[in-house]
């Protein structure tokens, strides 16, 4: 009976805790700061960075500047989409974009899309920000990063560029 309880516990934990396993990126279509409807499906074939953020988060402000550098450096090869939940509004987002000189869209979400990505659960009920998802050309989440002590260089330094360079580099030629 004890082994069964342990096995059941491990199965429940595995289903409750999203890991670094590759999973399909939840689809969405959200209104943006550029007065467009942004649909994730429109970005298929490109690497997409999905940033969950808030305009009053100091770490999010610094990371937004890194994301702008990504947009400038990689152009059409990498799409940057930030998602801001309520209570952020077109006014707060517009001010944030102007202050940080951003050219990528910030999308508005009432929480459903963010919930489908972050997958909070009883063991991890909070949502830490910023939170970055890297979606591959086929629409799968291949990286999932949350701001913290172990990810400082990704959110503040050059690690994101190294990560993207590794993802974008062509595969080695196949031997005949």
Give a brief description.
By secondary structure, the chain is an alpha/beta fold. The protein has a single domain, classed as Glutaredoxin.
What are the SSEs and their pairings?
Layout: H1 2-16, E1 23-24, E2 29-31, E3 37-39, E4 47-52, H2 58-74, E5 78-85, H3 90-100, E6 106-109, H4 112-118, E7 131-135, E8 140-146, H5 152-156, H6 159-168
Instruction: Write out the CATH superfamily name.
Output: Glutaredoxin
Estimate the strand proportion: 15-25%
Distance between the termini: 54 Å
Count of the domains? 1
- Mean model confidence by pLDDT: 88
The unreliable regions are 1-19
How many runs of DSSP E, i.e. beta strands?
8
Regarding quaternary structure, what we see is single chain
Topology as a string of helices (H) and strands (E): HEEEEHEHEHEEHH
Q: Output the CATH class name.
A: Alpha Beta
Fold and architecture overview:
- The protein has helices spanning 2-16, 58-74, 90-100, 112-118, 152-156, 159-168, and strands at residues 23-24, 29-31, 37-39, 47-52, 78-85, 106-109, 131-135, 140-146.
- It is an alpha/beta fold and 176 residues long.
- It has one domain (36-164): Glutaredoxin, CATH 3.40.30.
- The strands form 2 sheets. A 6-stranded mixed β-sheet has the order 1-8-7-4-5-6, with helices on both faces. Strands 2-3 form a two-stranded antiparallel ribbon.
- The chain starts with a helix and ends in an 8-residue tail after the last helix.
Keywords:
two-stranded antiparallel sheet; 37% helix; 176 residues; alpha/beta; Glutaredoxin; 6-stranded mixed beta sheet; 8 strands; disordered N terminus
């Amino acid at each position: 009976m004890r082994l069964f309880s342990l096995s059941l516990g491990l199965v429940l934990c595995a289903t409750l805790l999203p890991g670094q396993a590759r999973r399909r990126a939840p689809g969405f279509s959200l209104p943006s700061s550029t007065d467009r409807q942004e649909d994730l499906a429109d970005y298929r074939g490109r690497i997409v960075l999905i940033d969950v953020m808030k305009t009053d988060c100091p770490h999010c402000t610094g990371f937004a500047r890194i994301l702008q550098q990504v947009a400038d450096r990689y152009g059409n090869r990498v799409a940057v989409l930030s998602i801001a939940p309520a209570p952020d509004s077109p006014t707060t987002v517009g001010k944030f974009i102007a202050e940080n000189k951003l050219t990528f869209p910030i999308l508005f979400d009432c929480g459903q899309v963010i919930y489908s990505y972050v997958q909070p659960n009883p063991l991890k009920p909070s949502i830490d920000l910023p939170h970055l998802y890297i979606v591959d050309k086929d629409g799968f989440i291949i990286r999932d990063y949350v701001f913290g002590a172990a990810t400082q260089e990704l959110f503040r330094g050059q690690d994101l560029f190294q990560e993207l360079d590794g993802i974008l580099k062509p595969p080695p030629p196949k031997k005949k």
